[in-house]
Specification:
It is built from three helices and no strands. With about 80 residues, it is an all-alpha fold. Helix 1 packs parallel to helix 2. The longest helix has 23 residues.
Length: about 80
C-alpha cells in the first residue's frame, strides 16, 4: 500500500532530476555517485528507483536523517 501511495511522488522526483541534469548537460549515467539524504530514501522503492534511474545504487554511507539535520543547521547558520 505504501508503495502505491508513493509511486507518483517518486516518479516526480526523477522528473526534477531530468531537468537538473538537462540544465547541467549531463546524463544519469555520467553521475559518479548518488548520496541519499532524508528518511524516505530508506524506503526500498526509492532505492530501487535511484538504482534504475542512475544505473547504480544510491549511497547510504551517512545516516540520511542526520544529513538533513546537518544541512538544516548549516543553512540556518548562513541566514
Amino acid at each position: 500500500l505504501l508503495d502505491e501511495l508513493c509511486t507518483d511522488l517518486v516518479k516526480r522526483s526523477f522528473v526534477i532530476c531530468d531537468e537538473a541534469l538537462r540544465v547541467a548537460g549531463l546524463r544519469p549515467s555520467e553521475i559518479d555517485s548518488v548520496f541519499l539524504a532524508g528518511g524516505t530514501t530508506l524506503l526500498p522503492m526509492v532505492q530501487e528507483g535511484v538504482r534504475a534511474y542512475f544505473g547504480q545504487p544510491g549511497l547510504l554511507e551517512f545516516d540520511p536523517t542526520e544529513v538533513v539535520a546537518r544541512g538544516a543547521c548549516l543553512a540556518r547558520s548562513d541566514a
